[in-house]
Design a protein that fits this description.
alpha/beta; 6-stranded mixed beta sheet; 8 helices; 26% helix
Length: 288
């Protein structure tokens, strides 16, 4: 029978099938071939006499991640806050780059909008609004939550974002039965206490599914290179071929279409600064 791995703990996998959740183990061939089963895998399994199961094979993956170990993501909900904690734009853009690299639709979710003024929200929205879907939400007031439910309908969505921005609270709203512990914000560090212990995917009433992903808090850009980084910034990618030099890095080269767009305001300065910072990180990585 066919099923979907919804959770994996200690070598046991919990597979959603037409007959309900079946606890299963993978055959030894997976370990022999260096394949690690992951939450989100669509698998073929057979039931054993004790009502449990054995996973025989997996279907091709749309995408996959090592930390956390999840596969077949359709949408990233990139969650951040305007305050407590303040936005880390370079980190936000790393999530967006990761989505672009893996063919995943990103949706920016500015949570805790009740903490700041509408003018401050507008300033943040202007950074991304022309490039990505952008939701202003508040789990406290309910603002934007219906739109969020609509966007994840029928999709496998992963919550990503820094600690303390309300990912567990959003998950509780989308799937109340998840009953996740929500971490209080540390008054000293303004960071959320880590509350999620394992990776799991939950079914939503609207037909979608949502991963709870403790590992998507920070990471390095492991695969982007100097010559393709700009391609993962859509507002820069549309200017491909318009610079004087084909290998333009958009830093100080003459007749650079990207820097001209920044000066004219069609590319936001914070996005450009993020690009330069990520470019420097890639160059620094090459030295070691």
């Amino acid at each position: 029978m066919t099923g979907l791995i919804t959770k994996g703990i200690g070598g046991f996998y919990y597979v959603l099938t037409d007959e309900g959740i079946i606890e299963a183990k993978g055959r030894g061939i997976f370990k022999k071939d260096g394949i690690t089963l992951a939450v989100g895998d669509v698998v073929e399994l057979e039931k054993t006499e004790d009502g449990k199961g054995v996973i025989n094979s997996i279907y091709p993956r749309k995408n996959q991640f090592i930390r956390p170990p999840i596969v077949n993501v359709d949408t990233f909900l990139v969650v951040f806050a305007p305050a407590r904690p303040k936005p880390n734009y370079m980190l936000i853009d790393k999530f967006l780059i990761m989505a672009e690299m893996n063919g995943i639709e990103p949706v920016l979710c500015l949570n805790k909008c009740d903490l700041v003024s509408s003018e401050e929200i507008t300033e943040i929205r202007e950074i991304y609004d022309r490039t990505y879907p952008f939701l202003t939400i508040s789990c406290k007031t309910g603002e934007g939550l219906e739109e969020l439910e609509r966007l994840v309908s029928g999709k496998k969505a992963a919550l990503a974002g820094p600690s303390g921005v309300g990912k567990s609270t959003i998950l509780n709203h989308l799937h109340p039965e998840a009953n996740m512990e929500t971490g209080a914000i540390s008054q000293k560090t303004s960071r959320g206490r880590h509350t999620t212990r394992h990776v799991e995917i939950f079914q939503l009433q609207n037909g979608g599914m949502i991963y709870d992903t403790p590992g998507f808090t920070s990471f390095e850009i492991l695969e982007a290179e100097e010559d393709n980084l700009a391609g993962f910034y859509p507002e820069m990618d549309v200017l491909r071929g318009q610079c004087r030099y084909d290998d333009c890095r958009h830093r100080s080269e003459p007749d650079c279409a990207v820097r001209r767009a920044v000066e004219e305001g069609s590319i936001h300065r914070k996005r450009y600064d993020s690009y330069l910072a990520n470019l420097d990180e890639i160059r620094s990585r090459k030295k070691y």
